[in-house]
Amino acid sequence: DAIKEGGGNGHGFSSPMDIFDMFFGMGSGGGRRRERRGKDVVHQLRVTLEELYNGSVRKLALQKKVICEKCAGRGGKQGAVERCPTCRGSGVYTRIQQLGPGMVQQTQTMCPDCQGHGERINPKDRCKGCQGKKVVKERKVLEVHIDKGMEDGQKITFSGEGDQEPGLEPGDIIIILDEKEHEIFKRSNRDLIMMMELTITESLCGFQKTIETLDHRTLVVTCIPGEIIKHGAVKCVLGEGMPVYKDPFEKGQLVIKFTVNFPTHIDPSVTGQLEELLPPRTECIIPDNGEEVALVDLDPEQEARRQYRYRQAYEEDYNHNHHRAGGVQCQTQ
């Protein structure tokens, strides 16, 4: 509870870590542990699939806090630090409110004058460079090396490059890679997946297609006449996938998923020629009582509405019959 509330009135804790110091014998309350670190700073970096394939160096500009050089992180003149008169050095501001006869409410918040540190710098003695904040903002440019084969969500850590604060070890700057969607390729671990469209002629009679790789080479894939590629078929090219992280000479597969575009209409005058070239149709024997029906296109929206109306009618009928059955009771002896 003391940690959640920021300390207790009269206990002399200037920070929550002082409570641990008291329990584990690492010093007395009233001072921060020197081995404490500042917060890590996390940045997201949008990268392309080409950068993850070929490797890249990106420059990232950001603002970070550094210790003020004019006052060496003191915030003012030598000896200008004084105990905060508002919280009396506790770092918390206690407020007592009368709720009724014999009832009071006590609330504690972080001291607004010292920001919970328990000490402040006299305004007339504050450093003009940092205005008593002990730190100033500085523009920092980082070179982010994106190695071949890195993945979406992978972290790149710059140790000790986080915000500085007097008495604390700086935290880290953590860069998280965010992969942009590629218009052709989709990554799956070490493999690359792409879709390739074929005409019915290419599907049946063979084809040659070119593929531009992520490092701007041209691959030629060939299907010889007589080899049929069906709709939904999956083929792969070995060694043309993503490079393996830290082993870039090893690569995964390029997976190609084929879709065959069938024509929507054929001239009836050429169907006889097609029949001579294609395998024969299965002969259909029609019985004497057979009924001819017409094929129509199915409208998904109309079908969904029809199914909805059917379910509603079924539920209403079920509820009606169930209610009638529930009103009849059998007498037993």
Automatic annotation (TrEMBL):
The keyword Zinc-finger applies. Keywords: Metal-binding, Zinc, Zinc-finger. Residues 55-139 form the CR-type domain. InterPro entries: DnaJ_C, DNJA1/2-like, HSP40/DnaJ_pept-bd, HSP_DnaJ_Cys-rich_dom, HSP_DnaJ_Cys-rich_dom_sf. PROSITE patterns: ZF_CR (PS51188). CDD domains: DnaJ_C, DnaJ_zf. A zinc finger (CR-type) spans 55-139. It comes from the Eukaryota. PANTHER family: DNAJ-LIKE-2, ISOFORM A-RELATED. This is DnaJ homolog subfamily A member 1-like.
